[in-house]
Amino acid sequence: MCKMHTLVDFFLVSNKKFLKEVKLHNKNLTFSFIMIVVCQRLNGYLYSMNLFKKILFLLCVCLLANCTKYVEKTSTTTNPTGTVSTNPGSSGTSGSGPIIVTYTSTSPCAPSNEVFTFNCSGIGVPAGAIFEWYFGDGVAGSGATVTHAYQDGGYKKVLVKVKTSSQQDIGEVTINVKTYGQLVTPIASFSYQLKNQVGMQRTYEFQSNSSIANGSLSYKWDFGDGGTNTDNKTTHTYQQKTTDQTFTVKLTAFSDAGCGDTKSIDILVPAAYNITGGFTVSQTSPCLPSKEVFTFTGPTTNVPSGAIYKWDFGDGVAGSILGNPVTKSYAYNNSYSVTLVIYYNGEEIYHVIQPIKSYGLDATPSASFSVQNISNTSTTATYNFNNSSQVAGGFSNTQWDWDFNDGNTKSGAYPNVDNTFNRGTTDKTYTIKMTVKANSGCSATATNTVVIPKQ
Question: In what order do the strands lie in the sheet with 260-269?
Fold first, then answer.
């Protein structure tokens, strides 16, 4: 009875040189060459057989041809596309034939590591066969079933050579596998900060701080309100309401191996209120006998009950004043920027800055003048009136109004004036009045008397 492995050994020993010169592919012409050579070498043996043995012999020859086919197939895998957060691993086969290679791999995504398991079997593999594996990365192995972990990703060509126990070549199979390598799971992380607030809209800036040991990253943001983004750094604007809102922001970082990791942070978007307009300002006169006092009144429309008004009057005085309305007196003549911030539940809900002009506490001049007789005639007497008024606070006196009480007056920039009085039959006393005006708008009046002697 014909034993297949005995015929295979006989054929390989007898035709070793021929097989090296002609690579045996899965084609009918190659099988014909094999059968011709076998028949030529065993011609005498064939004629000595009876009919039954001849039939068995021919069947063995046909099996021999199939056992020595050279098979080269490309694997088909089921690798993920990267649209999911985990890669389940892959599997594949070299296809049908007398020598078949199959493989599976574990997931490359943490907590797993990518490890390939290769197996060689088939009807063309005799008992006691020897297997030589070459994994395409410079590493080799042996055995019908082997495992291998690739350190880097890419397409690898895996070759297995099958030999008899006496080191005679039987065949070889090449299969292509897609690898992802090790340490290909990202660690998702991000930070955020408030970028600006306009009206009822609050805009945040988000920055991915995700990392990965091997491979590249892609991103998917979910801002918790239906908004998404795929950039490494991005902004998102939330529409505020009159109540606090909490949004769970999620960043999923994907590696090119299809592995993913998600980081979530809850963001509190505080309530906002549609407060418009600025504050109103009223002030009393800075001129004596009054005193300049400002009254500041903040807006109240759409301001929630319990809100806190905080004022900064811009004069460098330490601390702020709370309340609404509030009063303030400035010591010095200057322009100031007044800031109002309204807080509610510890959050700023309104902010406005307005300029104001203060004249300070020294806006009124102190009026005075001197009197001197400078000439006389038999019918007249002439006197000089010289202003000696002062004004503080950085102001200056700009106008003088003189009333000489004899029907004569003089107004304008005349700090020094003369007036001639007519002499009568008796001495006469005149009360002279001078009103000085400063550029603060305040004025003061001083009086003095002169006695005009009779003729």
Answer: 228-229, 217-222, 245-255, 260-269
